[in-house]
Amino acid sequence: MDKKKDFTAIFKTNYPKVIRLCLGYTEGREDQAKDLAQEVFLKVWQSLESFRGDASIGTWIYRITVNVCLQEIRRREVTHIKIDTAVDQTISSEEKEQQFTTMYRCIDRLPPENKTIILLELEGVPQSEIAEITGISHQAVRTRIHRIKEQLSKCVRNE
Amino acid sequence: MNSYDEIKNQWDKRNVPLTPEKGVEEIIKKFALILKKQRISQMVLGCTIAVLIGFFFYISAYSHIQLLLGLGVMIGSLLIRVLIEYGTTIKKAKLPLGSSMAAYNEKLIAYYSARRRIHYYITPILFVSYVLGFVWLLPLFRQNLSSGMYSYILWSSIFIFAVLAVLIGVQIKRELSVLKKLKQ
């Protein structure tokens, strides 16, 4: 089995969904999201041989992405790394960009678990797979999604 | 934008960076660099242990009971601390990132709880042992060194111990905050 060939196929297929999810964790900041995505695929490369196939490769990559991104968020909060807001100020003049900023901000205010659930829901991941990725029961995921959607809508209305 | 459907619509319209063309090569290169750094760290650790043991025999520390105790306790506590740190770093790297979020969180909680036990019980003992080892050596320094050199060693060591205590404290505080966040 050619590891590099397999990895290249995995990378090309999954990079778009990994970067999209990472953008949700970094309030839409591309540079930070790219770094996180690279970290995710570094871990994928590192543990590709240990992948046992008890979940689909897509679910496995989503799990790594969620765990890597949450670790990074915790590290930033604990070390009090300030997120640069200069980009926001320059783009805030345009209404469309302002809407993106509002959406990302509201997502960012959610607790880590809920943030993960709603980001996966926004990505169109089926709820049964979200349950597999998060390790939360399908029923609980369904209930939570309903609640988070309400919270999110309320937040963007009030911003 | 006031309903979830509009948020979803907005979400789908985002600009997303393209897949980097040389992404795979960059990752493989970065991984090779990480492995190289790990090998260098292992070599540095090995050399440090060898130098410390060599120094111990070079000054014939075993022939003088006070020197043997002082230096032995200092080197021993330092080595134990470094090995514990090295061991837990490897343990963390081996945590299964491909587990579900909840399972991985549980593993992280277990990891940081073990670290907390190390910080609460082993680190203070090792730190006190290290300082005691130094205190045991002080009479020998006084006998064999000039008073200026003796004062320099004494005060610079007190300063180093204080800085070390603060750094260890900051690190412990950070790890305890991570544990607290994980348990929320």
TrEMBL record, chain A:
Gene Ontology biological process terms in this record: DNA-templated transcription initiation
- Extract the InterPro entries matched here: RNA_pol_sigma-70-like, RNA_pol_sigma-70_dom, RNA_pol_sigma70_r2, RNA_pol_sigma70_r4_t2, RNA_pol_sigma_r2, RNA_pol_sigma_r3/r4-like, WH-like_DNA-bd_sf
Coiled-coil annotated spans:
none
Q: Name one GO molecular function term.
A: DNA binding
Pfam families recorded for this chain? Sigma70_r2, Sigma70_r4_2
Q: Which family does it belong to?
A: Belongs to the sigma-70 factor family. ECF subfamily.
Q: What protein does this entry describe?
A: Sigma-70 family RNA polymerase sigma factor
Organism lineage reads as: Bacteria, Pseudomonadati, Bacteroidota, Flavobacteriia, Flavobacteriales
Automatic annotation (TrEMBL), chain B:
Keyword Transmembrane among UniProt keywords: yes
Query: Which keywords accompany this UniProt record?
Result: Membrane, Transmembrane, Transmembrane helix
From the record, give the transmembrane residue ranges: 40-59, 65-84, 118-138, 150-172
Source taxon at top rank: Bacteria
Q: Give a yes or no for keyword Transmembrane in this entry.
A: yes
Protein name from the UniProt record: Uncharacterized protein
